[in-house]
Amino acid sequence: MSARLAVIRACGWAMAFNDKFSGVARAYADQRPHYPEVLYDWLSSGTQSHNLCWDCATGNGQAAVALASRYARVIATDASAQMIEAAQSHDRVRYIVRAAESVPEIDDSSVDLVTVAQAIHWFDLDRFYREVKRVLKPGGLIAVWAYAGSHVTDEIDAVTKRLNHEILDGYWADNVELVNREYRYLPFPFKEIETPEFHMEVSWTLAGFLTYHKTWSAAQDYLRATGIDAVDLIAGEIASLWGNASEPRTVSWKLSRRVGTNL
Asked: What is the DSSP secondary-structure string of 129-180?
């Protein structure tokens, strides 16, 4: 375990909400990749009933809307009002501006499935897990997942890795290291369930690919600190490797995941 992870765990996760994404809420909604349908199918097949799902830190609502086709109701929460305003509407989804650690609108032992996509590393985990155990039904599931580096070509990947590890070095929050380590060191006080491997793919033009990188939390912090858009520093090099800027390329990621039950 790295020194950065040791510091994170020693801190007891007592973190106040640090809003890194409200300023890019619309871009986040438009240019974040969508998770595979087979993930939602697999999760829904693991719950005994399909009455209520809680999608925590819903962001643009993509997971909430997908889960709404599998559960009668979805409560989707996010600490950012701007993210909720930019989220997709759906008749079965109720959006609430709430921090992850306390959602009084959800009754005790009422939730079949709790999901957290690309966000649990920002939480006060002790408090969040207490809330999960309060709201989950006996035998209910909690599923958390995330993704880190993308793959396009080896040459393009090398440039985005340089953006990540060199240009933005020092601008990533320490807890993002959990994502880089595929959530292996994430405290997870549930009975774990073995999961299949999941990948996601999108087809993006050059503009979409660059906009996605602009939504990174470290890119936003770099911009605030320096007044310079870090993605612009590598955009020309990416463009030279991309070819026709309007021609979509396939971008893929491996999903890191932890799934457990409260039994």
From this structure: HHHHHHHEEEEEEEEEEE----BS-HHHHHHHHHIIIIITTTTS-GGGHHHH
